[in-house]
């Protein structure tokens, strides 16, 4: 993707030495200063929305793009590079060769096979499995100490696939899961109550899909638990109203896809928020797809979304949120739904 690397680097070095007068007896940079690098695999609408958001939020020193389409890849790289004067300084690389991802702190996988008309979900999964066999091993080889963040759908099963193919410990393999679903959930609740969405604490957990679970019992606004407050004040609320809000969350992505053909900006911001929490060691709580075995009574190696604390080591822990018996059963049913597809992959 780059022109004659040796001659180009020599040329720029000579110009730099002419342009600047060096500082004599300067000490080298601090060895504790960390050079951060993110690689994004797949430069479709989602991949580029993520890359663009990461750049504008000044999250990394180096961004590497990988895709199987060399022309689209080079075009996207150049388009971003041409915006350099308006962005924080970030080195942008692109290649069809996974060697460009070497030394990444975080590898974000957005590549995935698209569903063909009347194609079964299992057949789509099998095609994505073959694609991930080409993607995950070279990522793990080139960044053995990095973290994998899977965005490709169906995200829960593919995060499990990435874990198996990478050989990484489970805390370093994460799926974007219901992080965006929960953002939609918070927006709808805030809109319903006429408050700021940032003051709403609410989670969607389980599958990123139709069997997702809304944790109504743990919703709070400004620190006030909503449902228990309504009960104490003897204020009636319809369960149907709550269910309609959850349905709107599930249908949110479908509506955007029907209107504009794809989703991009919201998932771009969602994944950038995960990248920030991980790389900046924010220790923030995000509902993301993680290995759920032994949490909330879930048995078996299944990835689904739970409220997890994220930092430089990836998943640091899972919150011990109180779930009602109904929510606990719904979460286990969601795990069962994912397992039914997962077991058919033969991994």
Automatic annotation (TrEMBL):
GO biological process, one term: lactate metabolic process
GO molecular function, one term: L-lactate dehydrogenase (NAD+) activity
Keyword NAD: yes
Keywords: NAD, Oxidoreductase
Enzyme Commission code: 1.1.1.27
Lactate/malate dehydrogenase C-terminal domain mapped to chain residues: 178-338
Alphabetical list of CDD domains matching this protein: LDH_1
Pathways per UniProt: Fermentation; pyruvate fermentation to lactate; (S)-lactate from pyruvate: step 1/1
Catalysis performed (reactions): (S)-lactate + NAD(+) = pyruvate + NADH + H(+)
PROSITE patterns membership: L_LDH (PS00064)
Pfam families registered for this protein in UniProt: Ldh_1_C (PF02866), Ldh_1_N (PF00056)
Superkingdom of this protein's organism: Eukaryota
Domain Lactate/malate dehydrogenase N-terminal: 36-175
Broad class of enzyme this protein falls into: oxidoreductase
Residues that bind NAD(+): 42-47, 67, 128, 151-153
GO terms under cellular component: cytoplasm
Active-site feature positions: 208 (proton acceptor)
Family: Belongs to the LDH/MDH superfamily. LDH family.
Name assigned to this protein: L-lactate dehydrogenase
């Amino acid at each position: 993707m780059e022109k004659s690397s040796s001659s180009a680097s020599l040329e720029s070095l000579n110009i730099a030495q002419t342009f600047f007068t060096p500082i004599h007896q300067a000490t080298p940079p601090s060895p504790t200063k960390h050079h951060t690098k993110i690689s994004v695999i797949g430069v479709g609408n989602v991949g580029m929305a993520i890359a663009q958001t990461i750049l504008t939020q000044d999250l990394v020193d180096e961004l590497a793009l990988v895709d199987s389409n060399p022309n689209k890849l080079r075009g996207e790289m150049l388009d971003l590079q041409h915006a350099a004067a308006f962005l924080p300084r970030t080195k942008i690389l692109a290649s069809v060769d996974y060697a460009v991802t070497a030394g990444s702190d975080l590898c974000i996988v957005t590549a995935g096979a698209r569903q063909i008309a009347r194609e079964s979900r299992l057949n789509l999964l099998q095609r994505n499995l073959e694609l991930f066999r080409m993607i995950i091993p070279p990522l793990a080889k080139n960044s053995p100490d990095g973290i994998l963040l899977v965005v490709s759908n169906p995200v829960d099963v593919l995060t499990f696939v990435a874990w198996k193919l990478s050989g990484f410990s489970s805390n370093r393999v994460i799926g974007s899961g219901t992080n965006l679903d929960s953002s939609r959930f918070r927006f709808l609740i805030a809109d319903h109550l006429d408050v700021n969405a940032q003051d709403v604490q609410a989670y969607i957990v389980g599958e990123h899909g139709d069997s997702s679970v809304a944790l109504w019992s743990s919703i709070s606004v400004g620190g006030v638990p909503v449902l228990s407050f309504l009960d104490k004040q003897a204020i009636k609320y319809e369960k149907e109203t709550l269910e309609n809000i959850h349905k709107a969350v599930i249908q949110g992505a479908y509506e955007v896809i029907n209107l504009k053909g794809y989703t991009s900006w919201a998932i771009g911001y969602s994944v950038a928020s995960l990248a920030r929490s991980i790389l900046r060691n924010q220790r923030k709580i995000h509902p993301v797809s993680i290995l759920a075995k032994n949490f909330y009574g879930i048995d078996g190696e299944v990835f689904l979304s739970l409220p997890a604390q994220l930092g430089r080591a990836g998943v640091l822990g899972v919150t011990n949120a109180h779930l009602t018996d109904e929510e606990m059963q719904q979460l286990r049913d969601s795990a069962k739904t994912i397992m039914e597809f997962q077991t058919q992959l033969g991994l």
